[in-house]
Predict the 3D structure of the following.
Amino acid sequence: MSNAPFLPLCAPCDGEETYPLHIVEAGESAALSALLGRDEPFLRAQGFEGRAGDFTLLPGKEGIAGAVFCIKPTAGPMPYGALPAKLPEGRWVPQFHPQVQGQDTRAALEELILGFCLGAYQYHLKGAAQHTPKAQPKLCIAAEYGREARLLARAAWLGRDLINSPANLMGPAELAAAARHMLEERGACVELIEGEALRQAYPCLAAVGAGSDREAVVVVGQKPGRSKAAPRLSLVGKGVCFDTGGYDLKPGSSMAKMKKDMGGATLMLALACAIMEAELDVALEIRLGCVENSISGHAMRPGDVLTTRKGLRVEVGNTDAEGRLVLADLLTEAAESQPDLIIDAATLTGAARVALGPDLPALFSNDDALAAHILAAGRHAHDPLWQLPLWADYDEWMDSPIADCNNLSSRPMAGAITAALFLQRFVPEGQRWAHIDTYGWNDNARPGRPMGGEVLALRALFRAVSEGF
């Protein structure tokens, strides 16, 4: 298991050997020829062509003299995520070619630090006898550089760790305890609500968790802003630690990754940690519904009618549409204090993945200006989302003949939209709200994105919040 606070960075230290890491714009032939020197024909013959992503070590009289990495200056932080696997052990000092650095050394270092740290992440539970970790290279950078990149990388590592943890080690109680520790460590006041208090306050959420021997827990964290005028932000996350589908049982192929069904709660927790660590002037609330959707004589059944915190009654059309039931009560409570903005996140629908694939979280919002702000922040942070509509004509698809609504649409289409419309029923008119339907996982390894748990939209949402909402 990774140790999230300890990033692969070190401060400059006199007397210790370092190596230069030359970062050059892809295709800059003159700069590359100067760096490669008389070894250029030899290195070119081995396939180094100076294209984006190309890497080579520079030979020296006593071994390695340095390294060269080629990049497109507009590519963002992720290409740097390839470096931890390419560089040998040692302390590496980045040296930017002018076309990459431009006039802003700090911005260039932010991207390098963030991408490098995201790429260096590892998770494992192997015993010491079976695992010999590879000694990782470190970037040698003064501590005053990359503050935001460091805190975002720490938040991403912590989030990835939680998602990657097997469900037997990360049930509702363990997720709630981890969230409490992370939030309190950053100055928040935290309450864990469970047992009868939870059943009274969050009856619909409690019904989802009733089928498991591992009881549901709701985490409520609060931290005031630095000023009385601080905008009030309320975060809500779906924390289904494992989802069998309930009586509407998932097939085995669909259940294999269901430890990641708490990815929405993890995203909101990582965002809260980043906001607090950055000391943004935001009055913050966070609510996480930590449950397990399982099967037993106590589990909810298809056709059951549940009463929500809001008082609306919901017919259970499908027990595998449990995430929206978890969020319904939490959104209702979050809106009671009338915050300036509510953001919720959930690994909610397969329909969003069919529409947008694994890399693009779906964004829904009842405020077009807010949606545009979040989308722009995602573009600038190289952490994109894609907006889908809250198409009002589909709202009636969630109607029920015996209750106020059903948790399942009557049509086998637009599943991500109808799920968002269901959630909107628990958001009061006039309350600004954004909903993120995310995947929370990397199916394959890429630079900066190791296979496994992922906190997609973390950087986008952090930027949106830091720029004001």
User: Anything to note?
Assistant: The CA atoms of residues 8 and 138 lie 5 Å apart.
